[in-house]
Task: structure prediction
Amino acid sequence: MRVELKKIYKYPFLEETKDYIRDSDISLEDITEIGFSEILERGKRKILDALDGKEHVYDKPEREIFSYSASNIMLSCIKDDYLIKRYALFESKRVYKSMGKEDDEFIERVAQSLGVRSEGDNNEYKMHFTDYLRYGTGMRDPRWKLINKRVCKGYVYLSKENFLRILEEAYRRKINDDLPLNVPDEICKRMRGNINEIKKKLNEKKASFMRYEFSEINKDHFPPCMKFLVSEIKRGSNISHSGRFALTSFLSSVGMSRDEIIKIYRSSPDFDEEKTRYQVEHITGSSGTVYRCPSCSTMKTYGNCIGEDEDCRWVSNPMGRYYKGLKKQLSTKKREDKRSLRLKKF
Result:
């Protein structure tokens, strides 16, 4: 097992990793004791690094292998959806990067541990179509649609890069599904110092989110697709690249400034100031081209249309739906003004 430790400690979901922890006779209660302060520190650091958007440095396998349990306990004691999603995102990205250095046989062990049926050979992998539908269709880019993949005898064929992306998504969902755990209050109390430090950082992060107002921009008339994208970001979910493009071009078209748009994205788990600013500025004209909001048909193609409401009828673009709502509001106001004037004369 010692020979394997340097390999398996990066993958907490492997059966070999679970066996190592089980054979060590170290319980969840033990981890909270003073003698395991280094493990607690590493578990806390992993969460803080995720909040900061930094890659956690792994340098002591014999300590790191237990730090996952420490992180899970702290996350479960805090019980914050955004924090869990943020951690799941960065932890799964770490595993994706690490898997790129592994051979086909080991990657198949990883896939099996995540419940993905697969076979790999010479940088090409095949996975059962039911597993692909479970994870691949959650990624809204059209290239992930089953119709755009090679399928034979119930198996979907993927490049190594795409297959590892599927495993990344499977691990991300596993973390989100497994947490929070049911941790006794007594254990949470023992970790109060570490938990309070994480909560402080979390509150600072949330305080930096834009509590924006649309001022003269009437969000009530946003089409359902744009309301949904904004609500997803506000609740701490990542949206697809096509969704970001559509939302950014829409918000720019209705009059929102670049800085206001960037601040909306701050609550995304994968928010990166530099990348977001570049993307927003590019979409809104820094390259000399101001991109228009995609049409409704394009929104449907990319899976960004969540369904039409009554005002979506007879419009071909989300902007048309927005202006239609504004016109209805203006007409209503004019009728009310005329009625008010008649009442005054009466």
User: Anything to note?
Assistant: The CA atoms of residues 259 and 277 lie 8 Å apart. The chain has a mean pLDDT of 86. The longest strand covers residues 124-128.
